[in-house]
Specification:
About 40% of the residues lie in helices and about 15% in strands. The longest helix has 21 residues. With about 375 residues, the protein is of the alpha/beta class. Strand 4, helix 4 and strand 5 form a beta-alpha-beta unit. The chain has a seven-stranded parallel beta sheet, with helices on both faces.
Length: about 375
């Protein structure tokens, strides 16, 4: 029972597909996930390590600011179309799952034209171009943020679900902070732990402000776990102390989530989904250069729900950061309320739920045939 997963280019479009594929395989061992991605995307490094079958194609994004380079996009799409056709002929899939990004569009177009049922999973509050266009042809659309629905144009036959973003759900003991604090060398009680996380590669803009803020002196009851990103680590490791733990990269990130009372984070869809699932209040700094400014839309949705405070990158400095942190430290009731609001938005079973919907779709399609 082959299911093609089309998506990637960035981790935000690849990892949702991986989570769904694992859940699908767990729900029905007959499922055979097959990934189609881009040679220049993160999937080039990730997929070979995971045991899933895959094919990487010469796919390119749509160059909005450099339109003269779109000949690469057209050439890559033409070549990819032939390879996708060959894959489908060799082993026809029961459905296609698209998780967005430039690596998914050609496969979804092929599925639509050849009447292969497909499912979309849209991570962000403001959907990407792929989801906005293909939602009208999809059998199912699964939303990471319910606010995304207003931007889509599903047909009357399309089922739209507020499923949440598919992540690895927190374990049963996720909220036992004392053992996690001890692993980081922090006191097991008293004070608060702040996680600084600018994404898997870190954020120089956030790191620069955090460094200056630490130089000014931290409150004595605050402890910091700081994921700098590999490119920034060498210049920031000097901040390591009993109060500040500096890491280039934290894997698994759950080790930091377990200890954290609140976070300073980018507003990527998967990061915010994880923060909500772990019940971690956040100060979110959306990446201003994200496509269609979708991180700002994500951040506003969380802030409007009461699960986060938002600081625009242009407004982020030591004063605004200090004010935001002190607001959390001085007001336990605020932290508690934000934690509850984050958990209200959490969808820790999203991957399993989406997998069940896919299996139901496959069963109905097979019955019709």
């Amino acid at each position: 029972m082959r299911v093609i997963f089309a998506g990637g280019g960035t981790g935000g479009h690849l990892y949702p597909g991986l989570a769904i594929a694992r859940a699908l395989k767990k729900a029905d061992p007959r499922a055979e996930p097959f990934f189609i991605g881009a040679r220049r995307g993160v999937e080039r490094d990730v997929l070979p390590q995971l045991g899933f079958a895959f094919e990487l194609l010469d796919l390119h994004p749509f160059y909005r600011s450099r339109p003269w380079q779109n000949w690469k996009t057209v050439r890559g799409a033409t070549s990819a179309w032939r390879m996708i056709a060959a894959e489908v002929r060799s082993e026809p899939p029961v459905c296609v799952v698209g998780t967005g990004g430039y690596a998914s569009g050609v496969t979804l177009a092929y599925a639509a034209l050849h009447h292969i049922p497909f499912v979309l999973q849209e991570q962000n509050t403001y959907p990407g171009m792929t989801a906005r266009f293909f939602s009208r042809f999809a059998a199912q659309v699964h939303l990471g943020f319910p606010e995304a629905r207003r931007y889509l144009s599903p047909s009357k036959r399309t089922e739209v679900f507020d499923s949440g973003n598919p992540i690895e759900p927190p374990p049963a003991d996720a909220f036992e902070k004392a053992p996690a604090r001890a692993k980081w060398g922090f006191p097991t009680s008293g004070g608060k732990v702040l996680l600084v996380y600018g994404g898997s590669q870190g954020s120089k803009a956030m790191n620069d402000v955090v460094a200056a803020w630490v130089d000014e002196g931290l409150p004595p009851d605050l402890f910091v776990i700081w994921a700098t990103g590999k490119a920034n680590y060498d210049g920031l490791v000097r901040y390591e102390s009993n109060q500040v733990k500096v890491r280039a990269y934290i894997a698994p990130i759950s080790e930091a989530y377990r200890a954290a009372d609140f976070a300073l984070s980018r507003a990527g869809a998967m990061a915010t989904a994880e923060l909500c699932a772990w019940g971690i209040p956040s100060i979110v700094v959306p990446l201003p250069t994200a496509a269609a400014d979708h991180q700002t839309a994500n951040a506003k949705a969380l802030a409007d729900a009461g699960a986060a405070d938002m600081i625009r990158q242009a407004d982020l400095n030591t004063a605004t950061l200090s004010t935001a942190v002190e607001s959390m430290l001085a007001n336990p009731a605020k932290l508690s309320t934000m934690r509850a609001k984050a958990l209200e938005r959490a969808r820790p079973t999203a991957a399993a739920d989406i997998a069940q919907h896919i299996l139901r779709l496959v069963a109905s399609e097979q019955t019709r045939r």
